[in-house]
Amino acid sequence: MSGLPARRFQFLCLQTVAMLCCATVPATADESVDKTAAAESPLQAVKPILIHGPTQLPTALKFAEQDAAKASKLTDAQAKAVNQITAELKQADSEISKLQAEIQKAKQQIKTETEALKQLQQQLKAISEKKSDDKKTEVQANESAEAAKLKAETLSQELKQLQKQLKMLEQSLPEKQKQQADLKKQSGAAEKILTDQQKKESQFQEFAELFRKQTPAADPTRFREVAAFSHSRPLYSCKIDANGNYLLAGAQGSAFNRWDLVSAENTELLGHQSWVRRFDVGRSDSLLITGAYEGKIAWWDLESDQPKPQHLVAAHKGYVRGVAISPDGTLVATGGNDCLVKLWSVKTAKLVRTLEGHEHQVYNVKFHPSGRWLISGDLRGNLKQWDVETGALVRDFDGSAIYKYDKTFHGHIGGVRGMDISRDGKYFAISGIGEVSNAFAGIGVPTVILFDWATGKRLAIMSPEDNFKGTCWGVRFHPENDFITAVGGNSSGMIWFWKLGEEKPFASEKIKSVPYDLDFHPDGLRMCVACFDKTARLYHLGPETPTELAARTKDKAKKKSD
Questions:
Q1: In this structure, what are the phi and psi dihedrals at residue 503, rounded to the nearest 5 degrees?
Q2: What is the per-residue pLDDT across 443-475, written as a single tens digit (0 to 9) for each?
Q3: 418-454 as b/e, with b when 16 or more CB fall inside 10 Å?
């Protein structure tokens, strides 16, 4: 210790005392936060947070069993659908066989009766040509001719009836054959869906079995894609609901999307007239609130079969850029291009309070887990903490490292593109673009800034290890604070993982397209991203199933042989 410079030693002592005070004497709900804290020079810590983890995630088993049960029901339903189509196809085959037999029978009857009619006509011709002077013979010949003529007329009528019947049978055959062909296609498609569903069920069952044997933990080095959900337009926002049932996403379009994570079925929520860039979901109910570029916010029941807007409210002049539901589910906060932050009653959809103070567009809003505080961030990286009950401004934070005014192009670039607060409320992070060298081309460094909530001090400025350029569009704390994850890119997409407080990521993954948002599944093992290539992707950070391990081993062997 004597080798350390005196000033450095004093600094470390002060830092340690400050951290111990924060850890052992947390501020109560009645204590006010020092408004001058953020005005002091930011504290740049080297390793301010004890590295822990990976944390075991016992709730992952519940979600794995939930998914497996849903997959099993879907498999049973699909098997019934296959059986139904198979029965219909068997019936169609039987009807076609019967129809073809009737056609052949009708054709044979027509042939037989045509020959008989021909013979009768020849007989009539022979009788008419035969001359006889014997009156008795002539009478007999006439009687024979009348009988033959009557029989010929009867056969002729029967032939017409048979030909009509044959025509009807032949006309109905193509329709039946078309029905048969359609059923064969349906059967093939249904069989494929069943096969895929059985594979999915097997995968979900394997995860459940794996987690029963050992409680899993999230490990970014196991990062792998496990599902992809295709759309017709680029995607810009995403979340997974608290029950782990749906992947929700906003796109370059007015329709909002709800994908079932097990069935992959997409339900479009229609009500907005423009892109949905921000939204939030309730923590303990089926509430969904979306905010769109038209300036409106909408309330939805997420569990409804075909959700319709319960309320559609004009919230801001210009874009709605931030939406957050309070932890107790009573309030929703919004931020927009009109530089305002607003609080709304979830129950009545009425405005409760307007918070004024930002001088630039508000990009993000987020409630502190305590529910007492709200934080908002704007275009210039200005962060404001508000008292939810009174609407008073408590303090400001400096996030200007992710903003720049480019004098060459006379343009603003940056802002609080992503924001999150750790579940325990001890830390919060913002993301965007820093060290901008060219605003026009968007050339800068993807950046995450980590703050300590209690002191308001900046703990770290986090960026990629390499010389990667682009914007960090979204940031999330892992539910157990094991790491921070951020997504972004420019011409290519990246996902980064940092230990809390460390400046460089310990893991990173290049992905197929630029991701604009991310969220963690409540199991803590899965995460989703919304990508520009019209795809929402689901990744897994947990242990691999036997099937996954076998596939990876096979893939390695193939690459080695190539």
A1: -80, -25
A2: 899 999 999 999 999 999 999 988 899 999 999
A3: bbbbbeebbbbbbbbbbebeebeeeebbbbbbbbbbb
- Domains of the chain (ranges; CATH) run 59-212 (1.10.287), 218-541 (2.130.10.10)
303-336: pLDDT as tens digits: 999 999 999 999 999 999 999 999 999 999 999 9
Amino acid residing at 538: L
When pLDDT is cut at 50, 70 and 90, the band that residue 53 belongs to is: low
Instruction: Give the burial class of 93: count Cβ atoms within 10 A of its Cβ; 0-12 exposed, 13-18 middle, 19 or more buried.
Output: middle
Of residues 260, 299, 293, the one with CA closest to residue 278: 293
**What's the alpha-carbon Rg for the chain, to the nearest Å?**
37
Q: What is the DSSP string of 497-511?
A: EE-TT-SS-SEEEEE
Q: Return d(Cα 509, Cα 511) in angstroms, integer.
A: 6
Can you tell me the mean pLDDT for 175-181?
94
Report helix, strand or coil for 440: coil
Residue 51 — pLDDT band, cuts 50, 70, 90?
Answer: low
